[in-house]
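Agenda item 2: magnesium ion complex prediction
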Amino acid sequence: MEDRILPEEKRRNIPRLILVTPCYNEEELIEKTAAVMAAKLRRLAAEKKITDSSRVLFVNDGSTDGTGRILHDLCERDPIFSVLSLSGNFGHQSAILAGMMFARDKADVVVTIDADLQQDIEALDEFISKYMDGCEVVYGIRNDRSADSFLKKFTANMYYNLLNALGGKVIKNHADYRLVSAKALEALSGYTEVNLFLRGLIPTMGFRSDVVYFDVKEREAGKSKYSFGKMLSLAMNGLTSFSTRPLRLLGELGFVTALIGVMVGINEIIDWSKGENVPGYTTILVALIVFSGVILMSLGVLGGYIAKIYMETKRRPLYIIDNVVWKDDNGNEGGADDRNTCG
Ligand code: UDP
Ligand code: MG
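Presented output:
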């Protein structure tokens, strides 16, 4: 329907793109990645899909290897590169947010992409064309997970299903490869939560959005920087940030078990009044163990939510900027100070 295209969106100019790339100990591949990214941006600019002033912004998430030095060298060599260095390792989600918040008043669109280029950079054309069609957010969705181990595939699948069953608004097989327009970034800056799960947060903002499919590649060098612990914490964050249903389930579970307890109790009284022997310790033992388990589990879930409330009340910054190398269009160095930062 022609009418769906608003007049304002008909006038969309070609955007200035900032590619935000979090890096944590990526010295083995960052140089190659940078070359691929610069070539891609220049190709897109030559095809008039993005402006010549488009940039790559690396977010150095407290790397302890040579990544920081390499990134600064890259910035010296080629003005297309910039680097935002955080004061320590704040994790993938915070690093992405730091980059997006820094870029939000400098770009028309930001695309976040991992430093290992597992996400196909050739999909950028399609991201941009969806933006030109009027989308404020474009989600990159992996076509298949063949590059992942069976275990990762299996757990990821289970996790998405669980999240959706619990009422989370998560897009399946979408990680953090996405385009966000300046307008949507402005909206995102209004969210103040400390427990960050961008994948769940961004879809709740609304805006016109679309998806782009891409093929996942193998990591070419280095190891995955997502340790099991980091992955588990992200997964738990996702669950508890977007669903309070576990709390309700707990209540229901408690109610059902209590009901069973009452019924067992009544049964015992009836047996006793008939003078029948009460069965031995087994019943008691089983009941004790089962109910202790239920109580402990409930406490664990409650504790999880309370811990989150505790963290939220502290209002701690999600990241701290140590230094920035950013040249504006006139070649002047510039910096920024933003929400959640004190750098
Ligand atoms: N990363 C980061 N901080 C961290 C862990 C990872 O900035 O604490 C970056 C990493 O350099 C990469 C991206 O996040 O650019 C995704 O990490 P990785 O490829 O190791 O994760 P996987 O693809 O294995 O899930
Ligand atoms: Mg990766």
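Discussion summary: Residues 281-314 form the longest helix (34 residues).
Owner for follow-up: CH.
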